[in-house]
Amino acid sequence: MAFDRSERPRVPRAIKILIAGGFGAGKTTMVGAVSETRPLRTEEILTDRSVGIDDLTSVEGKRTTTVAMDFGRITLNDEYVLYLFGTPGQERFWFVWDELAEGALGAVILADTRRLSDCFPSVDYFERRGTPFVVAVNCFDGAPSYEVDEVRLALQLAPSIPILLCDARKRDSSREVLITLVKHSARLRAEPVG
Q1: Residue 14's CB: how many other CB atoms inside 10 A?
Q2: Are the C-beta atoms of residues 101 and 131 closer than 8 Å to each other?
Q3: Which residues in the chain land under pLDDT 70?
Q4: Angle at the Cα of 141 (from 36 to 183), degrees rounded to 5?
Q5: What is the DSSP string of 119-169?
Q6: For the segment 114-143, what is each residue's pLDDT rounded down to a tens digit?
Q7: Is 70 in contact with 27 (CB distance < 8 Å)?
Q8: What would be the CATH architecture of the domain defined by 13-42+72-189?
Q9: Using one digit for the tens of pLDDT, what is the confidence trace for 29-56?
Q10: pLDDT for the residue numbered 123
């Protein structure tokens, strides 16, 4: 009995994406907003033990923090499923980044204009690894707004790196950021090495 391969269901290609950025930039929110499954979260309540360690400037209302990762999934189409890994934002948890980054197609760096300098460690990390990334400026209510070119200049990013304005709370906005990253990474992989 011969097996007809055309009758076999297509298995979508799994793509690993990191969601990175500074403490309180909205990584957990983005994973939760866009994931089609209930996201896995490793959040812990901030306690008085983090006083002097975690800088709550401009995020005074923050009550929890990611200590390992967030995980979610989104199906883009019949061909691609994205597996999202939100990284912890605080320096003391950066040791998990190497494990999370292994095999990733690329990364979204979420930027908060109230704390834009918090993006530098993420930018440096992905540049050193040669990992494609995009910057998504999370437009928080009441936060200063800047043009994309101003953000590019402040973060010292090359013109080839996409920068988008987004609302990490909204599925469509977050989905657009992820699609932009996938396209950007595909473009980079198609460029001749030289």
Answers
A1: 12
A2: yes
A3: 1-9, 39-69, 89-93, 193-194
A4: 45
A5: GHHHHHHHHHHT--EEEEEE--TT-----HHHHHHHHT--TTS-EEEE-TT
A6: 888 889 999 999 999 999 999 999 987 777
A7: yes
A8: 3-Layer(aba) Sandwich (3.40)
A9: 899 999 998 766 655 554 555 544 555 4
A10: 95
